[in-house]
Amino acid sequence: RVVVRVRPPVDREVLDEYEPFASAVATDASGRNPGAITLCDDAEGLAAGSAAAAHGAHSFAFDRVFSERATQREVYDTCARDAVVAVTQGFNATLIAYGQTGTGKTFTMEGVHDAHGAYSTEDRGIIPRSIDDVFRHIREDSSPASRYLVRASMLQIYNDNISDLLKEGRANLGVREDKKRGVYVDGLSEWVVRSPAEIYDLMRRGQAARVTAATRANEASSRSHAIFMLVVEHSSLSASAEGSSEAPSRTFRVGKLNLVDLAGSERVAVTGASGQRMNEAKKINQSLSALGNVIAALTDARPRPHIPYRDAKLTRILESSLGGNCRTTMIATITPARASLAESLSTLKFASRAKKIRNAAFVNEDLDQKTLLRRYERELKALREELSARNKDLVDKRRLLKLEEEKRKAERDKLAALTELEERSRDFMAQKEQRVELEARIQEMQSQLLTGGGKVEEMPAVRNLLAAEHARIRSEYEKRLATIEAERKVMEEDKAQVDRYKSLLLKQRDIMIALTARLNERDEQIVSLQEELEVYDRHQKDLEDTLDKRTGELFRLRKAAVEHTTASPLKNDALVTALGSWAGGVETQGGALNATQAGSADEARVESEALRQARAEAERQTARVESEA
């Protein structure tokens, strides 16, 4: 899909003293043919129906043409929103901004952010709007089984060298290809993001690292191609698993969104570039020329056996976007100024050829078992299993700490109960003393009262009153005593229960400590046995090496004896006898070594001395035989 955007005239074009501004672009203002655009020297005359103006006109038809009055929202909703939604469904999508330098490519793709660096204004471009739509789709997905993982990357191609805009020090990156990932940039950093704000921070970092410079045609000309890549991984339950008796299986879809802001093509005579700027312009034009060659090869009437994707890093990275598994939209930007008619005409011809490319996009479903989302889930499952196994094998220290805390709490409760019991006992004794004092006082008063020559207590009315008062006091005393006794029993039961609980906690703690000690002792035994085994293995290896060495020397001596016997058969009985006795001794020592597989260092030195003596005797016998021969 190819669309064209005509930017409004800028002050540099309107205020040009040498060539007054005149529009060279004519669009269909009626809206009946929104994809038509015409370039000519006299756009006003063409609109008025002038035959002379129509003589040199160039007409094109695209999917959509945006006039100078088109807003950022209108451009995004028309040519980018569907591609962004397709990415969340597992498709690949690419949006490419192409055009002459200074025609509004970066404005269309990135737009303008506010003073705080946030892309919240209506002038924000396709990239921030795409990011907002991706996360809006994730938030609106109400399925509880859906999971998403979003990764972001940003690179630039400067002088045909790829560098990472989000991580310093990563330059001259290479392009690789495999069956699962397709074409990718080796060593490019990927950042897992959870909100649009995190991506905006990455964008600001990448924009600050991108190479820009001022030219005669553009005060902030991009000197490199920039590509912002967004990967959306979506995991959901497969449709076949729902409602079936089988265990639910997950389906993984991976969608990739490439947002490409190409550096503008330049004519050195127009931009006034020189020195480094001229070299940059050459590299930019070379990569754009390679892009044009790829498009020409893809749109040729006769299919070509070879498409020159490898001629430039740009075309290599965009290989799947051009004729591959991708939904690609190209936004061609032009200026309405008649002074740039040649550049605008070249841009529209390029876009017209690109419109003939046919892609075959399909859902990337469960293509790679190593998707980051699936890898995270497998790692989480493995960690949970490992945690469960460790909890079964190791002593749970948290439980031991909890038991200790409960023990301390029980001791505090016991102390509080004892304190309360002592206070209640003191209250009981105080009330008892008050009762005794009251009874003594009553007795004293009764003994002092006399009426009519007799005692007061002997009068019937007084006796009845005293009996009633005694009964009331005794009843209250007994009730109070019963209450205190009941409370005392309850507290004693609580104390007994606290003691039992404390004893149980102590037993559990002792068991846990004993288990821990046994585990530590077993670990120490294992380590000690392993060390002893390593010592035995080293000693056995040393003995085997000694035996092999001596056996080799025996074979060499026997070979020398046989050769000498063949060459000089006379007078060799003494040599044969010496070799036989020495060989027998060596074989006997070797058998002993193989049988025991161990020996002390003193035995090894004795055997080594015997070996040297036997070897010297053999050499003397050999020399004597040779001299006699």
TrEMBL record:
Molecular function per GO: ATP binding; microtubule binding; microtubule motor activity
InterPro entries for this protein: Kinesin-like_fam, Kinesin_motor_CS, Kinesin_motor_dom, Kinesin_motor_dom_sf, P-loop_NTPase
CDD domains noted in UniProt: KISc
TM ranges: none
Keywords, ordered alphabetically: ATP-binding, Coiled coil, Cytoplasm, Cytoskeleton, Microtubule, Motor protein, Nucleotide-binding
Binding site for ATP: G99, Q100, T101, G102, T103, G104, K105, T106
Coiled coil regions, renumbered to chain: 366-549
UniProt xrefs under SMART domains: KISc
UniProt superkingdom: Eukaryota
GO biological process, one term: microtubule-based movement
Domain Kinesin motor residues, every copy: 1-357
Region (Disordered): 594-629
Listed GO CC annotations: microtubule; spindle
Pfam family, one: Kinesin
Annotated localization: Cytoplasm, Cytoskeleton, Spindle
Similarity-based family: Belongs to the TRAFAC class myosin-kinesin ATPase superfamily. Kinesin family. KIN-5/BimC subfamily.
The name this protein goes by in its record: Kinesin-like protein
Source organism of the structure: Prasinoderma singulare
